[in-house]
Amino acid sequence: MAILAIDPGLNNGIAVLDCERRLLLATEIPMIGEGANRRLNMTSFASIILQFRIEHAVIEDVAAMPKQGVSSMFRFGRAAGAIEGALAALKVPTTFIRPAIWKRDIGAKAKQAEDIRALAIQTWPDQAHRFARKRDHNRAEAALIGLWFLQHSGWTSGGEDTPPTSSLLAGSRVFVGGEGWRTL
Predict the structure, then answer these.
(1) How far apart are the C-alpha atoms of 100 and 82, rounded to whole Å?
(2) Distance from CA of residue 79 to its chain's centroid?
(3) What is the extent of the structural domain holding 113?
(4) Pairing between strand 94-97 and 173-176?
(5) Which residues contact 108 (CB under 8 A, 6 or more apart)?
(6) What is the pTM for the complete model shown?
(7) What is the 3-state secondary structure (H, E, C) of 54-94?
(8) What is the dihedral of CA 138, 141, 146, 151, to 10 degrees?
(9) Average confidence (pLDDT) per 10 residues, the chain, 184 residues
(10) Based on the number of CB atoms within 10 Å of its own CB, is 173 exposed (0-12), middle (13-18) or buried (19 or more)?
(11) Which of 102, 184, 112 is nearest to 148 (CA)?
(12) Residue 59 in 3-state DSSP?
């Protein structure tokens, strides 16, 4: 049993970690289509969720950024919504965490993409091949988001519907399948 951490968007990163903080997978949700018709392959995403028997997901809670175009924000929103919809459909409890919170807590507050990648390699040296390319920084972010969640949530595998939330920071939003949203 494992958790799934996600850096959302078309240029996404996902990571699967077990309750002992071992990195089981770091990759991207594959895309289908060309150009403006690119979409995330949600069938592949669902297969990963089922294959690893994901018990909980944690997603970086991002917002629009200045100077981003309308069409790029629409594509980002579509991708993020598809991820959230798939998790809800599969009844995977989900926590959303703001980037400033997890980056501060993990010691990556002002770090650039290359610094994030280097931190992931340092954290999981036996998995360095998963972060070998410059473009693997989204995978690295996802892995570090998962590490943050495991360090701060008190979550352990055990078949419970929801992880303990007492040590998550105020303002974290948790989606519990069948129950809806909870803000801590």
Answers:
(1) 24
(2) 13
(3) 2-183
(4) antiparallel
(5) 115, 116, 119, 144
(6) 0.82
(7) EEEEEEECCCCCCCCCHHHHHHHHHHHHHHHHHHHHCCCCE
(8) 180
(9) 92 95 95 90 95 96 73 83 94 92 81 88 95 94 96 69 47 48 49
(10) middle
(11) 102
(12) strand
Tokens of 135: 């473009």
Q: Which two tokens stand for residue 57?
A: 């997901």
- 8 Å CB contact between 39 and 165: no
Q: Are 150 and 16 in contact (CB under 8 A)?
A: no
Task: Give the residue from 77, 15, 3, 65 showing the smallest Cα distance to 40.
Answer: 77
Q: What is the tally of structural domains in the chain?
A: 1
Give the chain's length.
184
Give the separation between CA 166 and CA 6, rounded to whole angstroms.
22
Reading the block at residue 107, the tokens are 């010691």
Structure tokens at 124: 């999981």
Which pLDDT score is estimated for 88?
94
What CATH number does the domain containing 17 carry? 3.30.420.10
